Every structure is written in structure tokens, then in C-alpha cells.
């Protein structure tokens, strides 16, 4: 069995740390290190080089965004996931500019968060669907403005079936295969098959990349 993904959890609220630590107390993902401040996070990253840093923005000393930037200065390949309740153009933009691999809201489904951690570990990037309209509206340059209509997108990806478009939208919404199955009244096996077909047809490596591609090309 592969070694578990080692996480440095940076969160100043004890209750959140306890909850997240229990959530990831598994064979494949573990919270190995904790930090309550940005400076503590930087030092622990320097010493232990965890696989993933799960970073809050609002910390008592320096912000999680500044801590992210300094961690990336230690190791340009560091993988930092911003996990926050903050949602503003400036915070999303500066987090990505600082080098964060993902920007995730704290109300996210726990299974989706686990999926994000695993895919970020493998080199993927992820942007919470709640953050996409902000960047698109402000034309920040991270997500290009919607340039294609749905009809144009479908014309370019005509090999996707109508059902696969329905599944793709739910993938973008962060739904698991089980949740997709319940939403569309199909079996979980069928939902998984649709997701696999979408990944293959969009020529991407995983469901996260499929969601990102759909967002960038204007389907949702």
C-alpha cells in the first residue's frame, strides 16, 4: 500500500483543527502536523516538508496567503490548498498568485475535499465553483471570460451525449458519483461510467480537470 498523504493543517480555531484531523484520520490521508499561525506553518513546512498544506486565510499573525507565498519560496513545488470561509476577488486572486494549488470554501462536501487533496497531490489545480463567477466577472485573468455559448461548446464537443452534459454539470458542482446517481435517478455504477466517458472524451486525466475544462470553455 502507498504511503498516506501527509498534511500540515494550518488553522487557528481548535474546534476546526479537531474536526478536520478526525476527518482525515485514515490510511490514505493523515494530518501529521498542525499550526495555529502563519509563521508556525512556515517553520513546520521548512522542517518536515509535508505533501499538502491545508491553509486557512485568517490567522493571528500573518495571513494564510502570505504564509503560502513564503512556503512556495522555500519549495516552489509545495502544494498548498486554501481552505477558507473568505470569498472575495482579492483573496481568491492573491491566493492563486501566491502559488496556491486550490481555493476551497469550508462548506465543501467532505468527500469532494478528500478528492481535491488527492488530485492536488498528483499535480492538479482546483478552484471552488463559488469563486469562478467572481474571477470571471472581474476578468482577473485566471479564468478567461465566457467566450463560447453552450451551443458552440456542444458543437466542439458533439461526442458528449445529453446525459453526459447533465453529469458534467453535477461534476462541476462537486457532486460525488453517489450524489449524481441520486440526482439523476440512475445507479452509481452508471454514474461512474458516465464520468469515465466524460474524462475520456474531454481528453483530461480526472474529474477535477473535466470540471475545470468545462468552466474555462463556457459550458457552465
* Unreliable sequence segments: 139-154
Number of strands: 6
Largest sheet features: 6 strands, parallel
- The CATH topology of the largest domain is given as Rossmann fold
Oligomeric state of shown chains: single chain
State the shape: globular
Helix percent reads 40-55%
Instruction: Please count the helical segments.
Output: 11
User: Ends: how far apart?
Assistant: 38 Å
CATH first level of the largest domain: Alpha Beta
How are the elements arranged and paired?
Layout: E1 5-10, H1 14-23, E2 29-35, H2 38-48, E3 52-55, H3 64-74, E4 80-84, H4 89-98, E5 102-105, H5 110-121, E6 126-127, H6 132-138, H7 150-156, H8 162-172, H9 177-184, H10 188-201, H11 207-216
Parallel strand pairs: 1-2, 1-3, 3-4, 4-5, 5-6
Helix pairs in contact: 2-3, 3-4, 8-10, 8-11, 9-10
Task: Please characterize this protein's 3D structure.
With 220 residues, the chain is an alpha/beta fold. It has 2 domains: 5-138, Rossmann fold, CATH 3.40.50; 150-216, Arc Repressor Mutant, subunit A. Helix content is 50%, strand content 13%. The model is unreliable at 139-154 (pLDDT under 50).
Amino acid at each position: 500500500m502507498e504511503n498516506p498523504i501527509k498534511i500540515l493543517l494550518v488553522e487557528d480555531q481548535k474546534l476546526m483543527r479537531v474536526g478536520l484531523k478526525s476527518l482525515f484520520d485514515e490510511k490514505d490521508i493523515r494530518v501529521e502536523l498542525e499550526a495555529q499561525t502563519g509563521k508556525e506553518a512556515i517553520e513546520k513546512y521548512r522542517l518536515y516538508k509535508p505533501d499538502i498544506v491545508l491553509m486557512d486565510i485568517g490567522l493571528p499573525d500573518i495571513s494564510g496567503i502570505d504564509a503560502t507565498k513564503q512556503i512556495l519560496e522555500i519549495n516552489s513545488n509545495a502544494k498548498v490548498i486554501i481552505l477558507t470561509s473568505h470569498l472575495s476577488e482579492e483573496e481568491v486572486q492573491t491566493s492563486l498568485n501566491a502559488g496556491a494549488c486550490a481555493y476551497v470554501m469550508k462548506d465543501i462536501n467532505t468527500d469532494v475535499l478528500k478528492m481535491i487533496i488527492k488530485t492536488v497531490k498528483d499535480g492538479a489545480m482546483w478552484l471552488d465553483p463559488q469563486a469562478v463567477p467572481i474571477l470571471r466577472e472581474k476578468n482577473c485573468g485566471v479564468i478567461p471570460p465566457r467566450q463560447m455559448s453552450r451551443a458552440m461548446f456542444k458543437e466542439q464537443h458533439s461526442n458528449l451525449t445529453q446525459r453526459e452534459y447533465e453529469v458534467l454539470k453535477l461534476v462541476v458542482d462537486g457532486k460525488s458519483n453517489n450524489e449524481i446517481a441520486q440526482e439523476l435517478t440512475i445507479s452509481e455504477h452508471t454514474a461512474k461510467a458516465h464520468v469515465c466517458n466524460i474524462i475520456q472524451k474531454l481528453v483530461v486525466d480526472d474529474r477535477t480537470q473535466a470540471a475545470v475544462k468545462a468552466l474555462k470553455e463556457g459550458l457552465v
